[in-house]
Amino acid sequence: MTTTSTTVALPEADGGWREIELSEPRGWAEHPQPFESRIAFAAAHVVADPRGENVPGAPAVVDWEATLAFRRHLFGYGLGVAEAMDTAQRNMGLDWPATQELITRSSALAREHGARIASGAGTDQLLAPAGDLDEVTRAYLEQVDFVETAGSQVIVMASRQLAAVARSAEDYLQVYSTLLAQATRPVILHWLGEMFDPQLSGYWGSTDIPTATSTFLDLINEHSAKVDGVKVSLLSADHEQELRAALPSGVRLYTGDDYNYPELIEGDGVHHSDALLGAFAAIAPAASAALTALDAGDVDRYRQEMDPTLALSRHVFGVPTYYYKTGIAFLAWLNGHQDGFVMVGGLQSARSILHLARVFELANEAQLLTNPDLAAHRLAQLFATAGLTR
Hints:
By secondary structure, the protein is an alpha/beta fold. It contains 15 helices and 10 strands. The N and C termini lie close together (about 5 Å). The model has no long low-confidence stretch (mean pLDDT about 95).
């Protein structure tokens, strides 16, 4: 790869190269206060310690200074943090001891900044398959209690262990009803689709989405006082619009649709979605500018700010979608939020060099490279390591 002060050469699959122009960096305005018209969380990644044994199957070794600095970056743009979610590599390298420390540290940081935080409670401390529903319930309750004690709102994550032992919709309702009855504050329920985790296929007791949705709504309607909102990650705008119209009054829909979030957050004039998105960790400055415009009632400006980010998000979350975390960490590295492109569990290897080159290109087009020269230099290092020279 070669660079000048204005151009970068990117490799192509056929062995050739193409030149792109580096965009001028944009001076994005910070917005440390929460937004008025929408609640917005960014699901944040963790920064791996480059000196740690962050290889597949090993306990996570986290660079805590960089990890917390990234959360301060998100707070500075008015975003809450959705902590210890799948973006942070839950079930893909981040073990329960590291998760506990992450939730504790991030919750304390959020209090310091007066920022909103919600953290994932699951059942991933079970290192062997659960024996029955009671074991799953106990594991869930342990994590819910831990998150609440840390001072964070709870996000009830989808459970691989529950998916493995549940035999009917009634099994899901039994477990979740127990959780909601014992939660001390309203929670966010997270329905994570199988495109994000194939082990969650058939969640809510059916592979038929309308049938599963009916079960989900039965749970919410029965326990609406304990449900702040739902985060649905099925990547279907039509399904999300239908579901949010059916939710009981006072229950929010936090979009988890990284393919269609601009239109869903904007809304249809009757209903709108709030946001709990991994994509927002990658596009925080632009998301902040868009939501600032929406607060001011300037929908045209909202679209101008948000729409250019969509191609980047769709590429980062491309199939296989569950490897999107690699693109999030890659962008953090390009923008100087971490010193190295390494990830817990060695997940930096989950995307190809050509995929990452396209991430760079789309971030450049959206003016989301805060220091284009640094980003180009780091990209050149990555290409050289991969044996790509021009």
